[in-house]
Amino acid sequence: MFGFFGLFVPGTKVYNIILIGMFGYNLTYLFLELINSKRIIKKTKSERKFIKNRFMLLQTIAFIYLFFSSLKTFIMIRNGYDYSQIRYDYFQLNGYETSNLVSVYFRTYILQAIVFLGIIISGFELFKKNRNKLIIYVSIINVLMLIFINSGRTIIFQLVLVILFSYLLRPKNNKITKKIKFMTFSMASFFMFLTVFITNLRNYKDESAILATTRTIVTYFLGSLTFLEYNINEFLKTGESYLYGRGFLGGIIDPFINVVNILGFENIRSSGEIINEITGKFSYVGTTTYYNAFSTMFFVFFVDFGYIGVFICTSFFAFLSYFIYLGYNKSEDNYSKGLLIIILYGTIYSSFRWIFLFPWVIILIILLKFCFKKSKKGKLLNE
């Protein structure tokens, strides 16, 4: 049975897993809402002050690294490399850009976190009355350079979502001027064009750019379900034992495992390595479409505990989401808003991946806290 663009329709197993996950998440969230419904949330003024100097230090570090990486990419293009080769080398340990192990870990763990942090903070600034244009410009330049060196489209997806979340979570008394509306529309249009352009560079060169982009969007959102089924079957074939929560907490646990391995004390496979070994293999998800990497968050949860893991992990995710939302609802400061945006992004992106498998997301949370200094507890807003 085929769907759009000849994509295979996933089997019953996939729909059962999705239903289990939805049940676990919604049941937990409704339970927490029920037991907290009678509690009065005392709203306080902002308890954390944004430290601009710390933020700009991080963005400057990213800018310097990205600038020299962009020069290397430019040289590769002049030497006749196409973007498929550049992208392959970018993600390989023996590639042009990854010959240095320190560079690999910096880019994998820290650089992506800094760039995403820049997107979050610039989203806040964009909808402020007295916005800091330098923060917005530096953050956008870093995004553009990152796109240039790896031709990635995920960062564009992140940018668009964060701007949307920032708009929806802006202070109620902040009116959006025509200038900001025009600026936001222009930015969105530019990055949409950039997405089409990158897609045209990377895929389906015998198709029009619009058709290739449409095919890519449909494949990413629907192909992940077919790929989920393939990956579950592959995991069961390997005979590997379950990870027992190491996938759910991969972003926290894996860096320690990598340090132990580098120091030579033990040779332990990280959860990211185990999962990526399976999801990294290409598989046909349609008659002419092959796919890798994105197998939804449910694959990580299944690898942790099987079917029961899907229920347990989605329940914990609901628990985490609920209390971060409560924290934001209580203070409504930018630090809490930043945490909420990360959770919202993780929820949307769960149709592709479990973001907390990746250490850069945990580092992003640490850097977000680093850029906000806790002040004395504010007075109640209604006093």
TrEMBL record:
<feature type="transmembrane region" description="Helical">
    <location>
        <begin position="182"/>
        <end position="202"/>
    </location>
</feature>
<feature type="transmembrane region" description="Helical">
    <location>
        <begin position="14"/>
        <end position="35"/>
    </location>
</feature>
<keyword id="KW-0812">Transmembrane</keyword>
<protein>
    <submittedName>
        <fullName>Membrane protein</fullName>
    </submittedName>
</protein>
<feature type="transmembrane region" description="Helical">
    <location>
        <begin position="354"/>
        <end position="372"/>
    </location>
</feature>
<keyword id="KW-0472">Membrane</keyword>
<feature type="transmembrane region" description="Helical">
    <location>
        <begin position="298"/>
        <end position="325"/>
    </location>
</feature>
<keyword id="KW-1133">Transmembrane helix</keyword>
<feature type="transmembrane region" description="Helical">
    <location>
        <begin position="134"/>
        <end position="149"/>
    </location>
</feature>
<feature type="transmembrane region" description="Helical">
    <location>
        <begin position="55"/>
        <end position="77"/>
    </location>
</feature>
<feature type="transmembrane region" description="Helical">
    <location>
        <begin position="208"/>
        <end position="228"/>
    </location>
</feature>
<feature type="transmembrane region" description="Helical">
    <location>
        <begin position="109"/>
        <end position="127"/>
    </location>
</feature>
<feature type="transmembrane region" description="Helical">
    <location>
        <begin position="155"/>
        <end position="170"/>
    </location>
</feature>
